[in-house]
Amino acid sequence: MFRNVAELIELAEGNQVKIAEIMIRQEIEVSGLSREEVIAKMDMNLMIMEQAVERGLNGVHSHTGLTGGDAVLLQNYIKSGKALGGTILLDAVSKAVATNEVNAAMGVICATPTAGSAGVVPGTLFAVKEKLNPTREEMIEFLFTAAAFGFVVANNASISGAAGGCQAEVGSASGMAAASIVELAGGSPKQAAEAMAITLKNMLGLVCDPVAGLVEVPCVKRNAMGASNAITAADMALAGVTSRIPCDEVIHAMFLIGQSMPSTLRETAEGGLAATPTGRRLEQEIFGSGNTVKLKDLVIS
Amino acid sequence: MKYRSAFDIIGPVMIGPSSSHTAGAARIGRVARTLFGKLPKKAIISLYGSFAKTYKGHGTDFAIIAGLLDFDTFDERMPKSLEIAQEKGIEVIFRTEEAITNHPNTVKINLFDGQDKLEMVGISIGGGTIEITELNSFPLKLSGEHPAVLVIHQDRFGIISAVTSILSRCEINIGHMEVSRLEKGEMALMVIEVDQKIEDMVIEELKNLANVTQIIRMVE
């Protein structure tokens, strides 16, 4: 079992296989399932991701009205031909937003690695798919590569906003996506790790400050930026750019930063954007004096 | 290693909005239900840390109740679980606690049905992965992801050996095991996570052992 990125790269290079393959082999060993069963399980998750993006691109709104409809705006903007950023980049952004809008609307999603950061990995996959034309098998491998890097972060740092801030959620998701894009585009395991390191370095310190404690503001837009960050870092790594700080050391830095983050900035809705005048006003409008009845009504209606 | 599977990272498939506060909370509730073995008549849910501060926004409340109703993380009935529990006549009380716990996402669940009681503490460590850290005041570590058998027994010599002998004879491999007790010679708890499903026959045999008070089986 690999414990860090260095071991993961060594295993992939030593066996001359993709990172995805190392993750698949480990899963078979840990779960006792057959290769076919493990692949089928991931295929199911991929299907859920496809359905969530599709639903989001058709337009969805949360029960509170705080989020929704932005994926549609972005798709229309891409179609207008006026977009300044590349089509793939904006497509990834819109699909990441689509997934998180579905999540905020309490729809069905697949956590990657968490629900609040569920847009980044599928958003980037379904955007680069248009250019790289992967097979179904390669798309499934994309998710196993993401899983391998997420696995290292989860075991050595954190993937919980309450424990490590948003860097642990959208930061991890973004790094995972960057590494997977590199591998799908034909980059080496080492380049995948460089992309992960470059991405995470730019996500360090990101706090978790959800307005009213809802996974809506700023979570949906952070997924958008997480997706564009991932594509940019993947391109940098594929161009041959390397990180001065090795990936495992970046992950450890992320862990230490998370530990020293005050609890007001770790998913308590007590600091950051949640504590701005507008954040507080929205909280008041949604929850009133603080009983649970109102949300319940919102959810059921 | 807290996380063992690729599907801890890519997964679970779930109802939004939060893997730790919704899916993880539902899983903790479901483990409590499994340990209790039936639907409770009354449930007291005490929330700590981030759970206490943001449960309304994340739907942690209905998620835990959905777990008690035995719903999976992707069950579309989840957002309506509070109503469903009410229809089934379950009394539900939520409490937000100020106490600082080791983990920011901690919940204590107390279940009641006549004479039957259960107190369980669970933590949601991120991405929907959970740990059960306390059961009826016994400290323990249980993921809820693997088949497991919990043996509540009198703290006497030879019981651990008797239990493991039965598992050995039935060719059941133990993945993780721990024993704890409240006081020397008093009640003790054995938590055994195994690799495969435990058949009824094995449970019956364990129940018949001397000094064994209760056997709880957990399945995947």
TrEMBL record, chain A:
Q: Which NCBIfam families match?
A: sda_alpha
Asked if the Swiss-Prot or TrEMBL record annotates the protein with the keyword Transmembrane helix, the reply is no
Q: What's its catalytic activity?
A: L-serine = pyruvate + NH4(+)
Coiled-coil stretches, from where to where? none
- Which GO molecular function entries does the Swiss-Prot or TrEMBL record give? L-serine ammonia-lyase activity
Whether Metal-binding counts among this entry's keywords is yes
Question: Could you tell me which Pfam families the record lists for this protein?
Answer: SDH_alpha
- Would you identify the family this protein belongs to, as annotated? Belongs to the iron-sulfur dependent L-serine dehydratase family.
Cofactor (UniProt): [4Fe-4S] cluster
Domain Serine dehydratase-like alpha subunit, first and last residues per copy: 16-274
What is the protein name given in its UniProt record?
L-serine dehydratase
| E.C. number | 4.3.1.17
Please state what class of enzyme this protein is: lyase
Which pathway does this chain act in?
Carbohydrate biosynthesis; gluconeogenesis
The residues that cross the membrane are: none
Which UniProt key words apply to this protein? 4Fe-4S, Gluconeogenesis, Iron, Iron-sulfur, Lyase, Metal-binding
From TrEMBL, chain B:
Q: Which gene holds the coding sequence for this protein?
A: sdhB_1
User: Its family?
Assistant: Belongs to the iron-sulfur dependent L-serine dehydratase family.
User: What pathway, per the record?
Assistant: Carbohydrate biosynthesis; gluconeogenesis
> What Pfam families does the entry give?
ACT_AHAS_ss, SDH_beta
Q: Which residues belong to any copy of the ACT domain?
A: 148-220
Q: Which PROSITE patterns match?
A: ACT
Q: Name one GO molecular function term.
A: L-serine ammonia-lyase activity
Designated name of the protein:
L-serine deaminase
Requisite cofactors? [4Fe-4S] cluster
- Which UniProt key words apply to this protein? 4Fe-4S, Gluconeogenesis, Iron, Iron-sulfur, Lyase, Metal-binding
Domain of life of the organism encoding this protein: Bacteria
Q: Which reactions fall under this protein's catalytic activity?
A: L-serine = pyruvate + NH4(+)
